[in-house]
Amino acid sequence: MKAVLSRSMAVAVPAALALWVLATGAQAQQSPVQLASLAADKPAVPAEFHGITAPDEGVVGDMAQIATLLNQGKVDRALKAIDELQKKRPADVVPVVLRGRALLQKGDRAGARQALEQALQMDANYFPAIAMLAGLDNAEKRPDAARARLEGAIERQPANVLAYRALAELRAAQGAGKTELIGLLRRAVDAAPRNPMAHQLLAEFFLRVGDPKEALAVAQKANTALPDSPPLLDALGRAQSATGDYGQAQASFARMAELLPKSPLPYLRMASAHLLAGDRAAAEQNLHKALELDPRSLEAQQGLASLAMATQQPAQALTISRNIQKQRPKEQVGYVLEGQIHAAAKDWDKAIQAYRTGLKQTDNPALAIRLHDVMMAAGKTKEAEQWATQWERSHAKDAAFPLYLGNRSMSTKDLPASLVQFDRVLALQPDNAVVLNNRAWVKGQLGREDALADAERANALAPNQPAFMDTWAMLLSGARQHDKAVEIQKKVVQLQPQVLVYKLNLAKVYINAGQKEAAKPLLDELAQAGEGFPAHAEVEQLRKGL
């Protein structure tokens, strides 16, 4: 069985899930405002505003105010501002979509749907509304309707790359395999060969699934057809880095810097390529260049802090962390960085103080989790337990902290305690597939008969995820449902043949099913891995049992 310790299931899915995550609430920290990223190449600019042409200064002010209020979570005030915008632009689809977006952020799905459907009556092809409605369809357990909505958008506008992207994200969330997703993204390239985004999506997909050579082929072809496109140069440089051609990568990023002289991104990319090549000095130089262009660049600051720690300069790293705190006093990132720096030096009291200081500024579960973690590392078990009780009592709707406690208890083999925490999470998030999988694993270890039901539900919510399927197959094997267990575990191995523990579990399933001859070649293969495989002793014991 496979327990998943990550707090996010996004890592288990082969593509970005902005649409799905947004609509289902799978990540509580995500804001519905971010759905606009599906409708624009520049996610920082609210996509709905693009529909207003040549706005007067008053409208520009309204739009900026709405964007700020939504980003701050002040939805009721944003709705009032949207009312004012709609008075100025009664025939425009933009205020109507903004209303849907705000209501979605507020949790009013019915109201959001009504507004978005009204927007489509005004403009049937306005894609932000289509994307958000597809997300709502999927969240309301109507995946076929969501898929049909996006496919309809593609049928009406075959060159709409955004629709292909949203459909790929949706299908990935629904468990589509690599072949289908590649085919879908290639369709986007064929339909819109002059659109850089189409090529970029395909190249980046290959990078995500660990096929840098194919990514490089796609990016090279795209750059030949569409030279001097910054997004395509970015994809090309990253593909070149992934294939070890760091010199060519630097050339691609340098050209990108010429085209985007005010952007820190090319220098951040150069720094990454230099680090992969082992050149820390050059990486540091480029990170400083990025920071000169954008003094608030978190990626540059965090990169410089990491380099400072790697070169035994913790004081320099602390200076960076405190600068971030000054720039972003109400965000957790600077306090997290300071705490990590102290923790690396095992200066637990200073780490605890950093996290406590952060919690006074921002009531963030990530800081609460880290505070508890360093208390435990410092041996302050009683204080940590008191803190956990206090946090859970005052944050009854926070699922992140009990999930952390559940995973921690699971890793220390305190399975009854982990079960209590997973029950708390599922009371708040009944469709959390990661937690259902982990609870199934714990129940299986405890010999509970209802473990299988949790595993089945996790796999229904997130199909074709090897970690979840592995748990399910092992529970099925334990329940003597051998044929189904073999079928599922064979698919797990097909999906991730490089994960040796999945092959070991398949051998166990075969043995439990009385198919020792099928288990033998798997165990022989695993034996060749030698003692480098942590379960080597178990492999040898099983081989002797054959």
Give Rg in angstroms. 25 Å
- Give the fraction of residues assigned to helices: over 70%
Q: Low-confidence stretches at least 5 residues in length (pLDDT < 50)?
A: 5-55
Q: What is the number of helical segments per DSSP (H or I, 4+ residues)?
A: 30
Kindly estimate the percentage of residues that lie in beta strands according to DSSP: under 5%
Largest sheet: none
Task: Give the tally of β-strands.
Answer: 0
* Topology order in helix (H) and strand (E) letters: HHHHHHHHHHHHHHHHHHHHHHHHHHHHHH
Ends distance: 22 Å
Task: Tell me the overall shape.
Answer: globular
Oligomer: single chain
Average pLDDT number: 88
The CATH first-level class of one domain comes to Mainly Alpha
Structural class: mainly alpha
Spell out the CATH superfamily of one domain.
Answer: Tetratricopeptide repeat domain
How would you characterize the overall build of this protein?
Residues about 5-55 have low confidence and may be disordered. This protein is mainly alpha-helical. The two termini are about 20 Å apart. It has helices at about 20-25, 55-70, 75-90, 95-105, 110-120, 125-140, 145-155, 160-175, 180-190, 195-210, 210-225, 230-240, 245-260, 265-275, 280-295, 300-310, 315-325, 335-345, 350-360, 365-375, 380-395, 400-410, 415-430, 435-445, 450-460, 465-480, 480-495, 500-510, 515-525, 535-545. It has a domain at about 10-190: Serine Threonine Protein Phosphatase 5, Tetratricopeptide repeat. α9 packs antiparallel against α10 (about 195-210) and α27 (about 480-495) runs antiparallel to α28 (about 500-510).
